[in-house]
Write a structure and sequence with these properties.
The complex is a heterodimer of chains A (107) and B (119).
Chain A (H helix, E strand, L loop, with lengths): L3 E4 L2 E4 L5 E7 L7 E6 L6 E5 L3 E2 L7 E6 L2 E6 L9 E6 L6 E2 L3 E5 L1
Parallel strand pairs in A: 2-11
Antiparallel strand pairs in A: 1-3, 3-8, 4-5, 4-9, 5-6, 7-8, 9-10, 9-11
Chain B lengths: L2 E5 L2 E3 L5 E8 L8 E6 L6 E6 L6 E3 L7 E6 L4 E6 L8 E8 L6 E4 L3 E5 L2
Parallel strand pairs in B: 2-11
Antiparallel strand pairs in B: 1-3, 3-8, 4-5, 4-9, 5-6, 7-8, 9-10, 9-11
The chains are: A mainly beta (107), B mainly beta (119).
Chain lengths: 107, 119
């Protein structure tokens, strides 16, 4: 199975800050990477697919980059509703696997 | 709009069975593969199983193989997960999800059904 490792596991930031979260795959997954946002008590919400494509309805302050094994989710100008946990997921091969999550907290 | 609604969660003793259902609406259910994904308390999501659009192909995570069975009834627009010989480590919120490719990403998720395995 492809292992997905996110860093950091948690990050504190303020409204208006820019934040980046990293995801590393244990082997190359080309651009087969998705990012999700999850708030307490809710299902994950798809933000980014194919490493850098913004899902419909997701604000443009979210962006994704990377290919191969190293990927980044960036959130520019944090808004109060962005404080949540973020997960990456590889969609390259069976079985689909997720990172352990990065919790974005208010400083 | 696409809706996925799980039911059947609850508290169950170790070794006992439980069946989850996921009612789908707002899209042509019979045209899509469907997955179950679970999330243990405080952990990241874990993929559990997938079934092809017509039910002819099924695949499972190693952690549930031989104990869980995924099935579907396209006439009822419903997905199922039969869980047998449940263990404490199966305690999680179980989501049905619609993948947009062979292995995701998962654009649509249900609200989740909590399964607690405890004596």
């Amino acid at each position: 199975d492809i292992q997905m490792t996110q860093s950091p596991s948690s990050v504190s930031a303020s409204v208006g800050d820019r934040v980046t979260i990293t995801c590393r795959a244990s082997q190359s997954i080309a651009s087969w990477l998705a990012w999700y946002q999850q708030k307490p008590g809710e299902a994950p919400k798809l933000l980014i697919y194919a490493a850098s494509s913004l899902q419909s309805g997701v604000p443009s302050r979210f962006s994704g980059s990377g290919s191969g094994t190293d990927f980044t989710l960036a959130i520019s100008s944090l808004q109060p509703e962005d404080f949540a946990t973020y997960y990456c997921q590889q969609a390259k091969s069976f079985p689909p696997t997720f990172g352990q999550g990065t919790k974005l907290e208010i400083k | 709009q696409v809706q996925l609604v799980e039911s059947g969660g609850g508290v169950v003793q170790p070794g006992r069975p439980l069946r989850l259902a996921c009612a789908a609406s707002g899209f042509m259910f019979s045209g899509y593969a469907m997955d179950w994904v679970r999330q243990a308390p405080g952990k990241g999501p874990e993929w559990v199983a997938v079934i092809s659009y017509d039910g002819s192909q099924k695949y499972y995570a190693d952690s549930v193989k031989g104990r869980f069975t995924i099935s579907r009834d396209n006439s009822k627009n419903t997905l199922y997960l039969e869980m047998n010989n449940l263990r404490a480590e199966d305690t999680a919120v179980y989501y049905c999800a619609r993948p947009e490719g062979d292995y995701g990403p998962f654009e649509f998720w249900g609200q989740g059904a909590l399964v607690t395995v405890s004596s």
